[in-house]
């Protein structure tokens, strides 16, 4: 009998439901189309006119404007996937992207969750179990126990003394920069714990807290990883996300300035080892604080991140496509040795908010001009006439630039910001323009408190 050529394994899915909205829904749709996959878009009533609906192969409204009744409604999303014939669900970021029960329900329904297996999400979703797993895998962590705070006041006092003040109390289930409180000295300890516990109970449904050293002038450095189901994992370089307001990232860059390759290399490899140890699948980010030449793990995000484009620009890897391909069961088509970091990239988050008070600004965009040119990328879902709704996150666009050096990338961002016009609503563009004129930022290596201090000085001036 003549030998039949080996047939490629059938793809696990050919249609992807994107369980998200806004710029990331557009971004994921683009990646799907480039891979030859069909797309299903979903929306809430507030997003019925969203342009990403008309470019998808199917578009279903799954509920009212409130996110709890639409983008967070697991049953409605699963029903939409069944009705539209989707074989996989991409959760994007936010909403249900780090919900282990959702990942589990998708797999139980016979569909593919484009993300890690539910147990990885559950381990990393609890910051205490994440810390424990990382310590076991040899990843350096912030000093402090990998267990929940006990109830006994004397034991708590002893743990705080062992760590040394200042300390930070954190909710095990915390996220989005909430559920944290710094304690500068012992007499404020018990009150801080009581307040944080109550907040954690209300916001995250769990009163579980832990305590660690509060680092006073760290930078926020993170490592992007990607893993397949065949025992391959790689890190795609590092990002600096220290420009934060209220623990929320505002500007991100890749690579982090002034960190020598021989310092970051072992940290990247420790992240890869940790992924292999926990059987991680898909993309993920290890977040670290970096102070006085040392790295301290704070948490792992088990999803695609807002700031993934800066790594795409420097590594040349399309992270969303790679994420979808590993979910289809393909082996990673790059080895660690193939990963390079070329040039420098910045991302600015353009938010619909007042540039002075940072209060959200909803309304109709009456005029929009976006920058273009070499090394400029804009990820957005808005257009002139678009109605920014008050129901969701205020992110309306991401401005991303890439250039050979950090200084050139900063100049390019200044040019890109100058060419961005949004009228009808307020945005943080004036604030970003001023920030990119700042001398210390241009020098690089500013810490996580820099932006808040800069804002305070500006207000005082
Ligand atoms: P979230 O899940 O809410 O984003 P993280 O644990 O990632 O919380 O922390 C968010 C930010 O809070 C960090 O980027 C950093 O600015 C600050 N932070 C967290 N832990 C510490 C710490 N031990 N010392 C100093 N700052 C911290």
Low-confidence stretches: none
**CA-based gyration radius:** 22 Å
Small molecules bound in the structure, each named once: adenosine-5'-diphosphate
Number of domains: 3
CATH superfamily of the largest domain: ATP-grasp fold, B domain
Give the proportion of residues in helices: 25-40%
Descriptors for this entry?
single chain; Rossmann fold; Dna Ligase, domain 1; D-amino Acid Aminotransferase, Chain A, domain 1; 8-stranded antiparallel sheet
Short overview:
The protein is α+β, with helices and mostly antiparallel strands. It has 15 helices and 20 strands. It has three domains: 15-114, Rossmann fold; 143-213, ATP-grasp fold, A domain (Dna Ligase, domain 1); 219-460, ATP-grasp fold, B domain (D-amino Acid Aminotransferase, Chain A, domain 1, 2-Layer Sandwich).
What does this structure look like?
The protein is of the alpha+beta class. It has helices at 22-34, 51-55, 74-84, 100-108, 118-125, 127-136, 153-163, 189-204, 261-278, 308-315, 319-327, 406-418, 429-435, 439-443, 450-460, and strands at residues 15-18, 38-44, 58-63, 88-90, 112-113, 167-171, 180-183, 209-213, 219-227, 233-245, 248-254, 282-291, 294-301, 344-351, 363-364, 367-369, 376-380, 387-388, 395-403, 421-423. It has 3 domains: 15-114, Rossmann fold, CATH 3.40.50; 143-213, Dna Ligase, domain 1; 219-460, 2-Layer Sandwich (D-amino Acid Aminotransferase, Chain A, domain 1). It has 15 helices and 20 strands. 46% of the residues are buried. Helices cover 33% and strands 25% of the residues. The longest helix is centred in the middle third of the chain and has 18 residues, at 261-278. It has an 8-stranded antiparallel beta sheet. A 5-stranded parallel beta sheet has the order 3-2-1-4-5. It has a 3-stranded antiparallel beta sheet with strand order 7-6-8. Helix 4 (100-108) runs antiparallel to helix 5. The protein binds adenosine-5'-diphosphate. Residues 142, 168, 174-177, 180, 212-215, 218, 220, 244, 247, 287, 289, 298-299, 448 line the site of adenosine-5'-diphosphate.
């Amino acid at each position: 009998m003549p030998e039949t050529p080996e047939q490629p394994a059938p793809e696990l899915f050919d249609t992807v439901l994107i369980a998200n909205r806004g710029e990331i829904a557009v971004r994921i749709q683009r990646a799907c189309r480039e891979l030859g996959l069909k797309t299903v878009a979903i929306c809430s009533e507030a997003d019925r006119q969203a342009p990403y609906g008309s470019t998808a192969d199917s578009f279903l409204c799954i509920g009212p404007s409130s996110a709890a009744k639409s983008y967070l409604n697991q049953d409605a999303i699963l029903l939409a996937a069944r009705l539209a014939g989707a074989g996989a669900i991409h959760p994007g970021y936010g909403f249900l992207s780090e919900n282990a029960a959702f990942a589990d329900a998708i797999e139980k329904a016979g569909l593919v969750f484009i993300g890690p297996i539910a147990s990885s999400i559950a381990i990393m979703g609890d910051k205490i179990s994440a810390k424990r797993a990382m310590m076991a895998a040899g990843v350096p962590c912030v000093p402090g126990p990998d267990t929940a705070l006990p109830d006994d006041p004397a034991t708590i006092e002893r743990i705080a003394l062992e760590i040394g003040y200042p300390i930070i109390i954190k909710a095990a289930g915390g996220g989005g920069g909430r559920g944290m409180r710094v304690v500068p000295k012992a007499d404020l300890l018990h009150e801080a714990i009581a307040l944080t516990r109550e907040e954690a109970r209300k916001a995250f449904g769990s009163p579980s807290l832990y305590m660690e050293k509060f680092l006073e002038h760290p930078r926020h450095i993170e490592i992007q990883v990607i893993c397949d189901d065949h025992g391959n994992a790689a890190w795609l370089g590092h990002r600096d996300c220290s420009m934060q307001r209220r623990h929320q990232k505002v500007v991100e860059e890749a690579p982090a300035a002034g960190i020598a390759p021989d310092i970051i290399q072992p940290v990247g490899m420790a992240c890869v080892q940790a992924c292999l140890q926990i059987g991680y699948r898909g993309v993920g980010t290890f977040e670290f604080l970096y102070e006085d030449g040392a790295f301290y793990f704070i948490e792992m995000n088990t999803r695609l991140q807002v700031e993934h484009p800066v790594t795409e620009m420097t590594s040349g890897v399309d992270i969303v496509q790679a994420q979808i391909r590993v979910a289809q069961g393909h082996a990673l088509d790059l080895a660690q040795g193939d990963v390079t970091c070329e040039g420098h990239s910045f991302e600015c988050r353009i938010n619909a908010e007042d540039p002075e008070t940072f209060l959200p600004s909803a309304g109709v965009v009456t005029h929009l001009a976006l920058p273009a040119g070499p090394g400029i990328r804009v990820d957005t879902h808005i257009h002139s006439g678009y109605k920014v709704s008050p129901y969701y996150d205020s992110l309306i666009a991401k401005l991303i630039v890439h250039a050979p050096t950090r200084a050139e990338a900063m100049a390019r961002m200044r040019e890109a910001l100058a060419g961005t016009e949004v009228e009808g609503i307020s945005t943080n563009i004036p604030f970003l323009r001023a920030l990119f004129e700042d001398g210390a930022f241009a020098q690089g290596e500013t810490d996580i408190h820099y932006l808040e201090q800069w804002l305070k000085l500006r207000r005082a001036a």
